């Protein structure tokens, strides 16, 4: 976690909302699948109404990703969490609407790369 993240968040690994920009902060760490599933599910189901950003960078922990990053296991865990039927159901039940980065850019009136 970067220096701009509150110390309490860095220490506890808890999710929090940065109210200034709606960024839902969940530690980008090597926590176990079960721990990350709970953190993400809790963050999604307890957030207040409004625009929130939860940015994940999913991938597969395979040779190709391992060759270009040291975060392949973290990214694989995030992929597994967000394709878990229980997490998908929790998101649906919470009323949270999932959008792509392209949709976020369009909502903010910004030009999307390549357009």
Secondary structure topology:
Blueprint: H1 7-12, E1 16-18, E2 23-25, H2 33-46, H3 63-66, H4 72-82, H5 85-94, H6 101-107
Antiparallel strand pairs: 1-2
Describe the structure.
The chain is mainly alpha-helical and 115 residues long. Strands 1-2 form a two-stranded antiparallel ribbon. A hairpin with a 4-residue loop joins strand 1 and strand 2. It is built from 6 helices and 2 strands; from the N terminus they run H-E-E-H-H-H-H-H. The chain has one domain.
List keywords for this structure.
single chain, 115 residues, mainly alpha, two-stranded antiparallel sheet, 2 strands, 45% helix
Q: What's this, in brief?
A:
Helix content is about 45%, strand content about 5%. By secondary structure, the chain is mostly helical. The chain has a two-stranded antiparallel ribbon with strand order 1-2.
